[in-house]
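Running this now, will post back.
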Amino acid sequence: MPRIAVELPSEMATPGEFLADVQAYEAADADTVWLAPGSLEPLTLLAAAAAVTFRVRLGVTLTTPSPWPPSLLAAVVETLRQLSRDRVLLGVQGEPAGAATADHAGDAGALWEAAGGARVIVAGAGQAAIDRAAELGAGLVCELAEAAAAFEAVRARRGEAGGEFELWVRVAPPAGRAAWREAVSAAEELGATGLLVPHAPNLLDILRNPQEDDRQDLGMAVG
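Update: finished.
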């Protein structure tokens, strides 16, 4: 069964609702709660999430150029690693559109150095993303439509390299349980580690009860 990573926006109605969502996805057996870039500073939000969880991995997408000086970013990431008991994942773009190659290489290198011992997942399906993931990263994430070719390329690029390497597919929020089962099946056929799916109002219920007739929670509630 592929793992599930849920992407939450780096915005929140209230702190209580944000932290409750993180805890609810952990309770629903999500492997990772991922914070996308947004109006609020995601590393600070990740620290709050680490303080109220104990199992779920915590991911954050780092942007280039980073608003953090490299030395300060490295200190923050290391603090998060210790606070979370080494549950931190970092996401970087393999080749953002419109970026000059030399400038992007320098920005990405600074982010990579700041990552320290944290696992780094590279986003993208182009050759630059595949090369960077295979050489330096702990995994690759790309859109479902691009995943077959990208996964084949990164597997060939890595060859017999050891260590755990994660292959994630990004999917759209499911319209319902049938669509979710189709996405999970597609990820399984690709040999993916898991699915990265944005938070949606129906997602938590689908993760708790993936089959329409599987309502054990209701049976337990009524005895």
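The two ends are 30 Å apart (CA to CA). More later if anyone needs it.
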